[in-house]
């Protein structure tokens, strides 16, 4: 069951057990082999850095997307991701056209503070985030500085961010010194007007 979290100026919902444990681990094993994981290079203050994770952008042929300032053509859907997209349509009534897959190999891999507020996603993006593998902490912070909220995202969890969430909050997946195994996160998105 998706439960709405007590965050003002946002609409964030969490189901910690959206997938059964066996389904989540089967999907993790399938995706780690099936997806063409890449180490994207990001430009920061004029310098190029390998981003601290592997990723892969998948979507319908028309779902062009700008990411780190570069317009990307998506990779084609895999059978597992088509099935998962269908499950999300049933659960949420939302038809996603693309998914950004991230692979955090260990606790050194992370994602910095950002909002998924690219123009392509429209004024009130709906983002469905499915986590597989190791549990990692996810943090949200209001653009005013507070409030902030930390959540653990276990394997099989579904986190939904919609409404004014991206306009008013940023989120991140911090590094951790704790020994943690690999984690896959899938953020399903819908490109408005594509
Ligand atoms: O790994 C996560 O849980 C967050 C990923 C994320 O924020 C993104 O892909 O935009
Ligand atoms: Fe994000």
From TrEMBL:
Residue intervals of the Fe2OG dioxygenase domain:
95-192
**Signal peptide residues on this chain, from the entry's feature table:** none
User: What InterPro entries does the entry give?
Assistant: AlkB-like, AlkB-like_sf, ALKBH2, Oxoglu/Fe-dep_dioxygenase_dom
Record-level Gene Ontology MF annotations: methyltransferase activity
Q: Does the keyword Transferase apply?
A: yes
Q: Which UniProt keywords apply?
A: Methyltransferase, Transferase
**Pfam families the UniProt entry points to:** 2OG-FeII_Oxy_2
GO biological process terms, semicolon-separated: methylation
The answer to keyword Methyltransferase applying to this record is: yes
Q: What's the protein called, per UniProt?
A: DNA methylase
